[in-house]
Structure formats: C-alpha cells, structure tokens
Amino acid sequence: MTEAPQPALLLQARGLAISFGGVHAARDISIDVYEHERLAIIGQNGAGKSTFLNMCTGYLRPEAGQVVYRARDITRLTPHEIARLGIARAFQHPQVFIEHTVLDNLRFASSACGGFWQGWRGVRSPRYDDKARELAALFRLESVTEKRVSETSEGTRKLLDIAMALALEPRLLMLDEPTSGVSAEDKFKVMDTLRDALDIRGVAAVFVEHDMDVVRNYAERVAVWVEGRILAAGPPDDVLHDPRVLESVL
Ligand SMILES: Nc1ncnc2c1ncn2[C@@H]1O[C@H](COP(=O)(O)OP(=O)(O)OP(=O)(O)O)[C@@H](O)[C@H]1O
Ligand SMILES: [Mg+2]
After folding, report:
1. Band (121; pLDDT cuts 50, 70, 90)
2. In percent, how much of the chain has pLDDT > 70?
3. Could you tell me which of 194, 192, 199 has the C-alpha nearest to residue 175?
4. Candidate CATH numbers 3.40.225.10, 3.40.50.720, 3.30.420.40, 3.40.50.300; the one for domain 9-248
5. Closest Cα partner for 136 from 167, 114, 113, 111?
6. Greatest distance between any 2 Cα atoms in the chain
7. Distance (Å, whole) CA 208 – CA 164
8. Residue list, CB under 5 A from ion ligand 2
9. How is the chain split into domains, by residue range?
C-alpha cells in the first residue's frame, strides 16, 4: 500500500510569545501551515488572533519563539522583506485608494511589484494593464474596474484589497476578518471568489474569522485562540463540536 503524500510545510510558528503591559497576547503559540490549505483562526475579542498574524508578517517582533517560512527563519525580518519572500497580508480595513478607480488600484499594486513610485501617470502606463486586468478577472471585478472605490460595496473593497495583495504572487496569504463589514447577502459571494482565486493561484490562506458559517464552509482546518493560547486545532467538524471550544468561544 502506498501512503498519501504529506502536504508540504509552508510556515511554522514555534513557541511565539509577546505581551503588552500585563496582557499576554501570545504565550507559546506553535502551529504549522501547509501549502494550499485554508486555515481559519477563531476566538473572542482580544484573544490574540491579529497579534499572531502581525508576528508572522513582521509587524510585531515576538519576545520569544520563531517564525520559519519555507525552512527560513523570518522572525526578525521587516514586513516588506517578508512580503517579498511570499507571505501577503490583508488587514481588517481594506488598504486601498478610495478616490481612485478599482483598475487604478490594481495597476498600482502591479506597478509596486517591480519599481519605484512614478506618480499616478506612471501607474497608468500600459505596461501594468495586463496584470491589473488579470487580477480584476481573477477576483470577478471586471464590471466595476472603472468605478471609484468610494462608490463600491465593502465586499468589492475587500476583494480589491486581497487582489492587490496577490499582485506580489505570494504562496501564503494572511487575512484579518475578510467578511467583517460585508453584507450578509455578499459574504458568501466574497468567500466563493476568494476561495476560487486562491485555488487557481495555488495560494494557502490563514484567515481570522468571527462568522462560523464562513468557517464551516471555507476552512479546511480551524484553530481556536483563547487568551494568547491555542485551545484546539483540527477539522471544523471536530473543533466546532469540541465541548471546550463550545464552552469558551462559541
Ligand atoms: N500594539 C499593541 N499594543 C498594546 N496592546 C496590544 C497591541 N496589540 C494587541 N494588544 C493587546 O493584545 C491583546 C490581543 O489583541 P489582538 O488584537 O491580537 O486580539 P484579537 O484576537 O485580534 O481581537 P479582535 O477579535 O477584537 O480583533 C489585546 O488585549 C490587545 O489589547
Ligand atoms: Mg483582531
């Protein structure tokens, strides 16, 4: 009998710890992330979910522990260096240019991959068009490319922000609350689009999520944060029925 191939390890967090004043936002956080998987992080407000993403992407330096990405220690690298190595980050509030069009935002992200700031005229140069339009298609944004971002829905902005993060062609995307602020009727559309885009590009994702319907439908694995620790991790069907999780989180 042949064994199923092991999924390749992408990111390892080992014993991460950090505190703010007296608050332990992370104590001995260890978890692995595998190529192509979608891992959801759940937990109450203040449990340390965003802190974990920040430590993995260079926005916070852990006081103890290591972050290893594809066998390389990235614990002390800057956000910029980590992004270049292939870990993209998207925040709870989309980091987009609200007074510019959707397409210009995508052109900006495409131009930022290879160069220095050339002003918006430079950004609109035809050389960035193909990549920008490819991202628009991947994220089903073609019908809104000429709209100003300020005139679009929160769901569109979330997708635009993530599309921009993918311009750097990461292998891993770390997302804080992709459906927060998105209307109930849009949230599954946003998540379907995101899942398909990740699949097409072969990108793994770690996403913080408060909506258990989203977790059940889109995560292959879920990890539960409680007061800076991981209480449980595994398939959603197991973890979301774990009595300890039901008691302390859900
Ligand atoms: N830069 C910081 N300075 C001071 N305290 C911080 C900082 N970042 C996080 N904290 C504190 O660390 C704890 C964990 O915060 P974190 O933002 O990681 O929680 P979270 O699980 O993302 O919560 P939420 O669901 O509300 O987003 C909180 O008590 C928070 O106030
Ligand atoms: Mg948070």
Report:
1. confident
2. 98
3. 194
4. 3.40.50.300
5. 167
6. 61
7. 19
8. 50
9. 9-248
State if residue 50 touches ligand 1 by the CB under 6 angstroms criterion.
Answer: yes
The string of pLDDT tens digits covering residues 75-106 is: 999 999 999 999 999 988 889 999 999 999 99
Tell me, what amino acid is at 110?
S
Determine the pLDDT at residue 250.
76
Instruction: For helices 102-112 and 129-138, give the axis angle rounded to 10 degrees.
Output: 120
C-beta of 249 in contact with ligand 1 (< 6 A)? no
Contacts of 56 (CB under 8 A, 6+ apart): 11, 13, 67, 82, 87, 174, 206
Closest atom of ligand 1 to CA, residue 48: 18
Query: CB of 159 within 8 A of CB of 191?
Result: no
Ligand 1 centroid to residue 188 C-alpha, Å: 27
Indicate whether residue 54 lines ligand 1 (CB < 6 A): no
Q: Is 152 in the pocket of ligand 1 (CB under 6 A)?
A: no
Q: Two tokens at 118? A: 């050339």
